[in-house]
Design a protein that fits this description.
This protein has a single domain, classed as Glutaredoxin (3-Layer(aba) Sandwich). It is 39% helix and 18% strand. The chain contains six helices and nine strands, in the order αββαβαβαβαββββα. Strands 5-4-3-8-9 form a five-stranded mixed β-sheet.
Amino acid sequence: MDRIAAVAASVSVAALIGGIWYATAPTGGGEQFAQCRTSAIAGGAAAIGGPFELINAKGQTVTDTDVITGPSLLYFGYTFCPDVCPLDTARNAEAVDLLDEMGHEVTPVFISVDPKRDTPEAVGDFAFNLHERMIGLTGSEEQVKAASTAYRTYYKVQDGDPDYYLVDHSTFSYLVFPEHGFVEFFRRELTAEQLADQVACFVKAA
């Protein structure tokens, strides 16, 4: 219980810091998704996202263009996460199923911020167990850092046991389109239904 409480507290702090940064940032100018936005993004949507190179569950090196072939919901976490990541990614998976019922196919993507422990097989199993379409990605420390930096995510390995350490990390989910790149982020407080409704607005406007 102490371990779960510790990680929940650390992630809450990271999320709060990130939330303050986003909430106080100026919003980008008007564009086709303006009616769907519920957040403010520093520098506009173009300031977040971009190319990345990571490793998929088969051990293959893939780029953002290989992965993001349609509307995609990205989440940065790690498979050893005791509660936050499983809850968030399960919420995303449920939202994807709700979107399927609406006639919108969205691909959930899980990107590890723990390359030391998260092998391609580990992220692949984690992702598939949550949703059959979820793509699990890992990489070298440099590859993961580059992807995290592109999406302005935060993560930091805690000191402690070299095998059972925790990782502080931000908890946003990112909606990305192959034609437009990043378009919106979503907080973990949203329910699956709320997330699906908000994503659907962007998909219909794309």
